[in-house]
Fold this protein.
Amino acid sequence: MSEFAIANPLQPHDVWMRKALDQAVAAYDQGEVPVGAVVVYQNRIIAEACNQRETLNDPTAHAEMIAITQAAEALGGWRLLDCTLYVTLEPCPMCAGAVVQARIPFVVYGTPDPKGGACDTLFNITSDIRLNHQAGVLGGVMQEDCKAILQQFFREQRAQGKK
C-alpha cells in the first residue's frame, strides 16, 4: 500500500514499528481494522500479527493478543520478560491486561486510541502499581503513519455504509 508514507527509518524504534505497520497493511488488505503488532526479543522479531477479529469471528483476535501468544510459543514460556511489544494503535484494556499478564516490560505504540486506549489515553493499566507487573510505555512512534492507515480504513468503511 504505497499510499501510506513511511517516516524516517533512522528514528529510534522505527524499524520495528515499520514491521508492525506492514502487519497493519496486511489487516487492511483483508478487510480487518488495520492494526499490526510485533514482539521483539534480543533484537529480532519473534512474533508478528495483525487483527483477525472478522476472519476468525473472535472478539479477542487483536493483533497484540495473537502476537503475545506467538511470542510465548516461540520462547517456550508465558513470561515475556525481555521482550518489547510494538503495536500501531495504543492497546485496549484487554491487550494491556495481556501485557501485564505476560510480564512484557516495554510497549511501544504508534497512535493513541481516544476511545479505548489503556496505556495512556483512557486508562493506565500497564503502569498501575496495584497490579503485579508494570510496563514502560512509549507512544507516538510513527504516529502519523499509524493514524493514516486507520483513518483511510474507516473513511472507506463509512463510504460503504459499514462500521
About this structure: DSSP finds five helices and five strands in the chain. The helical segments are 14-29, 53-56, 63-75, 93-102, 143-159. The beta strands are 36-41, 44-50, 83-89, 106-111, 136-138. The longest helix spans residues 143-159.
